[in-house]
Amino acid sequence: MNEDDMTREDAQSISSARALDDAEQLLFSRGDGVLCTSSKRADGWPFGSVVPYALDVAGRPIILVASIAEHTRNIGADPRVSLLVQADVTQGDVQAHGRLCVMGRAVAIPEADLDDARERYLARLPEAEGYFATHNFSFLRIEVERLRYIGGFGKIFWLDVDRYRARQGHARVRAEAV
Predict the structure, then answer these.
(1) What is the C-alpha to C-alpha distance for residues 37 and 46, in angstroms, rounded to an integer?
(2) Percent above pLDDT 90 for the chain
(3) How far apart are the C-alpha atoms of 62 and 106, rounded to whole Å?
(4) pTM for the predicted model, two decimal places
(5) For residue 163, how many other CB atoms are within 10 A of its CB?
(6) pLDDT in tens, 115-161
(7) Residue 91 CB-density burial (10 A; 0-12 exposed, 13-18 middle, 19+ buried)
(8) Nearest to 26 by CA among 119, 95, 102, 82
(9) How far apart are CA 83 and CA 32, in angstroms?
């Protein structure tokens, strides 16, 4: 097979199935990322905010937002967001390590799911308990529509979102906080 006959996955140093495993592990193991929204104030320019997150039973990121936050206002105008999660790298080339961009729409969590969302979030970030007494905070979740995973050189994938949603690996997510 010559180079012209190779598919994009053939050129990768890992399979798309392995990339999905690695991406899910990264999303599960981290608890913070950069939430990117379209700025309402700055005519749609990209706007990044550091946010902690937890995962719901289906592996969707749960974020806690304050009504006074700029990113909350941006989401109100345009719910399309991305959450960049990257491996914890203290030295060396940051681009040689894994990162995942979760793209989707930030939506209010239905009333029936709020107790579970709160429990999961506070299990990861117990200090957030005090936030509820200060500002008007609410939970949102990111309905995952696209996933872009880069695991370092030669490990670059648009992941199959349907495969991510259907994975049985979310059992550990289900058990994480309960």
Answers:
(1) 6
(2) 69
(3) 9
(4) 0.87
(5) 12
(6) 999 999 999 999 998 887 777 899 999 999 999 999 988 899 999 99
(7) exposed
(8) 102
(9) 9
